[in-house]
Specification:
Number of strands: 0
Number of helices: 9
Number of domains: 2
Radius of gyration: 22 Å
Shape: flat
Order of helices and strands: HHHHHHHHH
């Protein structure tokens, strides 16, 4: 079960290197036909990388994930994920985070920062927050506070579900409607 995904990981790494070489070729191609040809080659290398990656991830979803769920508790999987994330050099993680932030929806941002608040060391959380401010700007950074709390969870200001909660939701919708970015 492990040999095939490991071989796929090596193939993805190889294709990442090839795509990196294609990027370098575009940057050094100059103008005209050479630049256009290098761009076409880059497009092909990127498409090949995406195709291999998507097929690999689809296989992991149906083979590796069920096996991990069968053999590990959620807390164990969370600890593994935490160890992997902690091993990423901060500069590299910051680069990845910039791209992730741009593509996340409101609920995904809320979930990511809720998880970080619960488990990340304060310096890491501060770095994530600074990156979010720089990447998304003030309006999107405020999204998590504008979402209604989950049912049964305490709302900001200590309110619970019910009439007080409905008032809080109304106030959040009113503020969001005034924000042209949202």
């Amino acid at each position: 079960m492990i040999d095939e995904p490991e071989a796929e990981h090596r193939e993805i790494e190889r294709r990442l290197d090839v795509a990196g070489e294609a990027i370098a070729a575009v940057r050094s191609a100059g103008d005209g036909d050479a630049w256009l040809g290098a761009g076409v080659a880059l497009n092909r290398r990127f498409n090949e990388l995406v195709a291999v990656s998507l097929a690999h991830h689809a296989r992991e979803e149906v083979t590796i994930l069920p096996a991990t769920w069968e053999h590990f508790y959620d807390a164990e999987l969370g600890a593994m994920q935490g160890a992997i994330v902690a091993s990423i050099p901060p500069d590299r993680y910051g680069e990845w985070l910039t791209w992730m932030l741009r593509g996340l929806s409101r609920p995904e941002l809320v979930g990511m920062f809720a998880g970080a608040r619960a488990s990340a060391p304060p310096p890491a959380l501060e770095g994530m927050t600074r990156r979010a401010e720089a990447t998304l700007g003030q309006a999107r950074r405020a999204w998590p506070s504008r979402l209604p709390p989950q049912p049964g969870r305490e709302a900001p200001g200590g309110q619970r579900d019910g009439k007080q909660h409905e008032h809080a939701d109304h106030e959040k919708r009113r503020r969001a409607a005034q924000d042209p970015v949202l």
